[in-house]
Amino acid sequence: AGALAPEHLADLRKSGLSDDSIRLHAIRSVPPAMIGRLLGLDVPAIRSALLIPFPDPGGGFLDHARVKIFPALRDAGGHRVKYLQPRGSGARLFFTLSTLGDALEGPAPLWIVEGEKKALAVAQLGLPAVGFCGIEGWHAAGSRELLRDFDALRLAGRVVELAPDGDWRVNPHVAR
User: Over its length of 176 residues, how does the chain's per-residue pLDDT go in tens digits?
Assistant: First the structure.
């Protein structure tokens, strides 16, 4: 499955991801010396990071990525932080390559899934899927408008299945 640290490969396997999905999406480990440069900040507590590049619906990859950090950190409010992205990079949708054509234009229901790895797992089932990053990841900060990435998706007249994380009982943002 490419250049992956054993801990990262185990994490991807725990999420049910196949070697084909991992390879197709160019998911790989970040050398420890590169983590600070990639994120634009130095967090000494981060031991390793798993890079998740974001596919461009027009082909290739966006100039956007997120990293799953090991170990997870706690923010000032005590919340667990498992993913980071470069400072100022904003929110983007994660397009799954194996079902991209169907996600963009197909007649089948479109699955909008919270989390890149979960979106990949849904796409592995053959379902058109797009991921969003966190429960507020469908819009830019300070706006209630959909991200421009949604413009690539045919939504009119289509069933859209929304699959947020399952923590709605304990996370008031998801419950809302």
Answer: 458 999 999 999 999 999 999 999 999 999 989 999 999 988 889 999 999 999 999 999 999 999 999 999 999 988 889 999 998 899 999 999 999 999 999 999 999 999 999 999 999 999 999 999 988 888 887 888 999 999 999 999 999 999 988 776 776 666 66
| Residue 65 host element (H or E) | strand 61-74
Q: Which residues are paired to 48 by β-bridges?
A: 70
Cα–Cα distance measured from residue 175 to residue 141, given in angstroms and rounded to the nearest whole number: 19
Report in angstroms the alpha-carbon separations of 118 from 24, 39, 95, 146.
Answer: 15, 23, 12, 21
Angle among Cα 81, 133, 94 to the nearest 5 degrees reads: 135
Q: Are strands 80-84 and 94-95 parallel, antiparallel or unpaired?
A: unpaired
Task: Please name every residue paired with 73 in a beta bridge, in sequence order, or none if there are none.
Answer: 81
State both tokens at 65.
């990525």
Q: Cα–Cα distance between 41 and 168 in angstroms, integer?
A: 31
Q: If we measure between CA atoms, which residue out of 94, 88, 86 comes closest to residue 149? A: 94
Structure tokens at 16: 């049910």
The counts of H helices and E strands in the chain are: 6, 8
